[in-house]
Batch of 2 targets.
Target 1
Amino acid sequence: MQELENEAGIAETYDTGRNLALIIGTTGAILLVVHQLFNIQLFGIVLLDGRYLALLAAIFLSLSFLVFNRRGERLGPVAFYDWILATLALASGVYLACVAKLNLSEGWEYAAPQTAQWVAYVFFALVLEATRRAGGKVLFAIVALFSLYPTFAGHVPDPFSGFQSTLSEAIAYHVYSSESIFGIPMRAFGGVVIGFIIFGAVLQHTGGGQFFNDLALALVGRYRGGAAKVSIFASGFMGSMSGSVISNILTTGAVSIPAMRRTGFSAKTAAATEACASTGGVLMPPIMGATAFVMASFLSMPYVEIAIAAAIPSLLFYFGLFVQIDAYSARLGLRGMSGPDLPRLNATLREGWPYVLVFAVLIFMMVVLRQETAAPFYATVLLLIVNQIFPRHRLTVAGLIDVLKQVGTGLTELTAIILGVGLIVGSFSATGLAGTLVNELLALAGDNVFILLIAGAMTAFVFGMGMTVTACYIFLAVVLAPALEAGGLNILAVHLFILYWGMVSYITPPVALGAYAAATMAGTSAMKAGLEAMRLGGVIYIAPFFFVLNPALVAQSPAIEVFIAVTCALLGLALICMALQGYVIFLGPLSGAGEFPLRIVLFVAGFLIALPEMDYVGIPFGPSLIAGILLAFPPLFVALRRRSTEFAGENT
C-alpha cells in the first residue's frame, strides 16, 4: 500500500512538473517569437534565423517528451526517462543555437567537427522519437526510411537512385543544413504559423467558438436539416483554425452529431456530415490550419494570394456538401431545429460583435496591409483587450494558464511533426531525387496531362493515409508537385490539387480516419460512415481536377473568366449532388420508375456543365455546356412531374 502511495506521489510530482515546464516553455517561446518577428532587439540582441529556429526547436522538442509519453498518449503519465530525453533535447538544441554562426561560416553540413557530429546524432535520434510519439507509427516509419535514404540511395534502381552519403554525412546534413530539419517547413512555422495557433486558442477560450456556433444556429438552424447545416458552418470554422481533422471532429462533433440524430438524421449520415465538414475546414481560408503558410513559403508567395486562390475550391466543397444535406433532408422530410432551442440573430450579433471586429482587423491587416506575420498577434491583443471589457467570457488567470497549456500542446505536436517531415525534404535535397522523379513521372505520363493528374491523385491519396495534413502536403510538395508543374499546369493550382487529394483519405475507406472517429461518436459502423462520407464529400474527388485544369477556379484568370467558371461550376456541382441524393431541390424527387438512369443522366449533365474550358486538350467550353443543359432537362422535368403528382395526391 505504501509503495502504491509513493508511486502516485511521484506521478503527481511529474505531472505538476510537466504543467510547469509547459507553461514556462510556451511563455518563453512566445516571447522569443515576438522578439524575433517584431525585431525588438532587446538589449541589442539580434538573432540569426538559424539560431532563432534552433532555440524554438529546443523548447518544443524538449516539451514533446513531456506532452507525449512513450506510448504516444497526449498528456499521459510522464516517466523519469521522459525528463532525461527532454533535458537532452533542450541541451542539444541550445548547442545548435550557440554554434549557428560558426556552422554558417564553416559549412558544417558538409564538414562538421567531431563534437558537432555527436550532437547531430543525438538531435537526429530525438527528432525521430518525437515524430513517433506525436505523429504515430506510420509517419515515423516513413520519416525514418526517407531520412536514412541518402545512405543507400546509390544502390536503389532507377528512377529512385540518387547521390549516396555515409551515415555521418547524412545526419550532419540533416541537422546543420538549412534544407532539412531547419528547412522550409520549420521556417514557415517560426514565421507565421505560431501567431495563428495562438490566435485560434485565445479565440476559443474567450467565447469565439460559441459565438460562431450560435451564429450558425441563428442563420440556418430553423431550416430543414438545420442541425447538419450548423455542423457544416461550425466545423468548417473550427477546422480552419485548428488544422486538425480528428480534433475538430472530437470537439464540434460532441455537439453536432447528437443534434443531428435528434432531428432525424441516420447515425451514418450524421457521422459522415461531421467528418466531411471537419475535413473541409482544413482547406478553408482565412487560416487553413498551418498548411497555407507552409505553402506560401514553398511558392514564395504572399499568404493572401494563397488564401484567395483557396477560397473558390473551398466554396465548391462546402456548397456541394450543403446541397447534399438539403436534398437529403427534403427527400426524408426532415424539419429544422425548434425555435426555443435557437439563439436569435440580433441578440447573437449584439453580444458577439467584438469577434467580428477582431476578424475584420485580422483580414484587413493580411489583405490590405500585407502583414501576415504581425496580423494574428495584433488581433490576439485586441481580442484580449475586448475580452476584459465585456464580462461574459472574461479570461481569468486560470483561463490564461489553460490557454498557455493548449497553445503549448498544439505547438509541441506541430513542431515534432514538422521537424520529422523536414528530414524527408532534406533527403530529397541531399540525393537530388526530386529532379529524377519529375523526369520519370513525365516520361511515364507520355505528355498526357490526364494520366499525370490521375497518377498524382493516387500518389497523394496513398501518402495521405496516416499522415497529418501539414506533413502530407510538405511531402507531396517535394515529391509530386514539380512533376505536375513541369506538365504545364498552374503552379498554385497544382499545390492546392495535392493538398485536396492528400485530404481525401480522411473520408475514404479503407482508411477514412475522420469518418471512423465520427462513427464512434455516432454509434454506427465505421465502414457505413466512410461510404456515406464518400457520397456527401463527393465534390472533393471532382473539384481538384476542375481547378487544376482551369486556373480561373483558383482566381488565376481575368475576373470575367473567374465569374463564368465559378457560376458554371456551382450549377454543375449542384446537379451532381442532387443526383447523388436522388432529389432535385425546388422541384422534387427522382424516386420511382427509372430512378437510377435519371440520376446517372443528371450526374453526367452536371459534370458537363461544371467541366472547365480546356482548349489545350481539345475540350471547348461552349459545346460541353450546351450538352449538359440539354441532358439536364429530362430528369428535371420528371422531378417536377413527380412533385406535382405527389402534391395533387395530398390535396385529394
Target 2
Amino acid sequence: MKLSVGIITFNEENRIGKTLDSVREIADEVIVVDSESTDRTAEIALSKGARVFVEKWKGYGPQKNSVLEKCKGEWILLIDADEVISPQLKEKIKSIINSESPSSDVYKIKLRNIAFKKEIKFGGWDDYVIRLWKNGKVTISDREVHEKYKTKSKIKKIKELIIHYTYDNIEEFLEKLNRYTSQSAKEYIKKGKNASFIKIYSKMLFRFIRMYILQLGFLDGYEGYLLAKYSSIYTMTKYTKLREEYYNNLGNDTSLVITTYNWPKALEICLNSALNQTVPPKEIIIADDGSKQETVDLVKRFQQSYPQSNIIHSWQEDKGFRAGMSRNRAISKATGNYIIIIDGDLVLNRHFIEDHIKNRKKGCFIQGSRVITSPTSSKEIMEGKKINFFDKGIRNKMNMVRNGLLSKMATKIDRNLRGIRSCNMSFFKEDLVKVNGFEEEIEGWGREDSELAVRLFNIGCKKKKLKFEALTCHLYHKENDRSRLKKNDEYLANAIKSRKTRAKKGLNRYGRRNSSNY
C-alpha cells in the first residue's frame, strides 16, 4: 500500500465530498476520524469510500495522532477537511511516492488560502506546511491546539498547491474564532501562562500591523483588511479568555478564613467585599467564636444567595475570647493548601485575594497591613459610603495605595515580630500543620498571632511584610478586654526562650471528625 490519506472532521458536510474527490486518484486508503459530527459528514465520507472512525474530540494533536495510528500506507498525506489537492499537486505526489529514490522522506507543501471567496496571497497566509511524509518519519505533539510536527529528516518543499477553503463569511470566521480561542486559552493555562492588559492590547495591535502592513495584507484588498482585522480580534479574544480563565482558577487552592464574634453588620460588609474579589477563593470559612443567632442567620442567608462560593460556618460555643481555637477549627475544615486569615471587621480591596496569592512564597508567611478608621468614617462606610484617600478620619493612609512597583520596593522578608497582626495574614497550610496551628492555651485578646509567628520562625519560615498590596480597611470598634494580655505575654516570652515549634493544644485536636460543615 503506497499512500494513506488522513483527515479529521467535525460537521464538514459542505466540504468533505470535494476534499475526498481531490485525493481519489492517489489514495490507496482514506482514514477519517470524525469528532461526533451532528451533520452528514460521516455518511458522505463512507459513501466516498473512506474508512470512518467516530471518536470523542480530544484536541487537534491527539485526534491527528489517532489518524496516524490507523494509516497503513508507506506514505502518509495528512490534510484538513476544508483542503483540496490541486491537479498539479496530485501529479507531484504520484512522482514522489512512486520514485525509488525520492529527494526526502518529509515534504512541506505550499498552502493557498481562499478566504471570503477570494484567493489570499499576502498577510502571511501564503505558507508551506508539513503534509506528506514516509510513515513513521513525523510525530505530532499532543497539544489540543497549534499542534507541532516533529521530524529528524530533511524537509523538502513542494510548490504545487493545497487549496485551503478557510472562511466563506464573517459568521463562519467568528464561530471558529470562538472555538479555537477557547482551546488556545486552555492550552496556555496548562503551561501556567497569564496575560496582562498591556499584553492583550499590544499583541492585538501588533497582529494587525504585521499582517496588514509588514506582510502586505493590504495588497489583498478588502478581504486582506478583513483578515488582518479579525485575526487581531482573534488574538485579543484568545488572550482575554486566557486572562479570564487564569483569574477564575487562581484561587482554586486557597481558603479564606474570616474570624467573627457578634458583629453581623461588619461581617456582612466583610463578606460582600470577599465575594467581590478579582480572584475568588475556593471557599470562605467563617471562624465564629460563639456568635448569637443573628450571625447564624446572616451566614445562612449568604450560603443560600451564593451557593457557588462554598461558604462554611465553623461555630464554637461562647466561652470567652478563644480566637486561636476558633481559627484552628476553621483551618481544620479548609480544603485549600493556602490559607488567608482575616478579621470580620475588615473591608477588603477587590484585589486582596489576588495579591496574597501572587505574593506567596515557599518558606514564608505573609503579613499584610490595614487602614484604621475613626468612629465617624466607620459609620459612614457601614452606611454604604466608599472611602477614598482624602477622607478625614482615616489613619495610615498610605495603606490605601495599591501599586505593584512600590510593593516590590517596600515589601521586606525578615524574622521580625514587629507588626504581626492576624487580621491580615496568609500561610501555606503545610506550615500551619507543622507548628500545629494556633496555641489554644492562649485565651483572651493578644499575642496568639505573635506566638504563632515565633513557632513559624523556629521551623525556618520567614515573614513577608507586604506593602502597597492586599489592602484592607479596618472598621472602628471599642478595644477588646485586655486583662489576659500579661499572661499571654508570658506565653510569648516562653515560646521565644524555649524555641518552641509546636502548639500544645492546636490543630491536631480536630482532624477528620471536624471536617464537616456546621
